[in-house]
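for the recovery benchmark. tokens below, seq after
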């Protein structure tokens, strides 16, 4: 199974366990990763240790199920998850999943080899040109046709920065939409 990691996922403190779970998921070995479904949510959790969990979900691309690793949840504090948005998860809300996880969304594009994705209101996988722009030093001016991904790229680049950042557009509608995308939760 192809496994992708959210760009802002931080496995600090559980790196070895994260790699072990990642390898198990790549083999489609849900039992070794101790994957269980969260009832009432599009998410699953894998067990990293006695105290830490890994939140994940599944998507479909070109007929293939893809695993998306979202966030490390320390000390079973599901209510602190940015994806669960304060939901209280009790042990009874976690059930053993079916043999094959069911995708909750369809991804129109995935980079052929890059194992990282971004999130705004949906999962984003940058192509080589977009990734080069994302990695480019500032200052930066983005020009391109409508629908080319300029706003998504700019918002992801801004999200990775610290301090105050100015986003400029001539479109009032685009400014409102960009603010909505930037400030909303990161749930796929």
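predicted aa per position
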């Amino acid at each position: 199974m192809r496994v992708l990691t959210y760009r802002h996922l931080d496995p600090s403190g559980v790196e070895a366990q994260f790699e072990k779970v990642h390898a198990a998921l790549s083999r489609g070995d849900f039992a070794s990763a101790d994957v269980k479904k969260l009832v009432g949510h599009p998410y699953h959790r894998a067990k990293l240790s006695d105290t830490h969990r890994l939140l994940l979900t599944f998507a479909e691309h070109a007929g293939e199920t893809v695993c998306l690793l979202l966030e490390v949840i320390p000390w079973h504090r599901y209510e602190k998850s940015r994806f669960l948005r304060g939901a209280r998860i009790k042990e009874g809300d976690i059930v053993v999943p079916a043999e094959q996880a069911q995708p909750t969304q369809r991804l129109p594009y995935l980079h052929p080899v890059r194992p990282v994705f971004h999130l705004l209101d949906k999962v984003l996988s940058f192509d080589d040109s977009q990734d080069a722009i994302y990695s480019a030093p500032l200052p930066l001016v983005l020009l391109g046709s409508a629908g080319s991904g300029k706003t998504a790229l700019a918002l992801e680049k801004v999200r990775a920065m610290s301090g105050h950042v100015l986003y400029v557009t001539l479109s009032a509608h685009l400014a409102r939409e960009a603010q909505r995308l930037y400030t909303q939760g990161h749930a796929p």
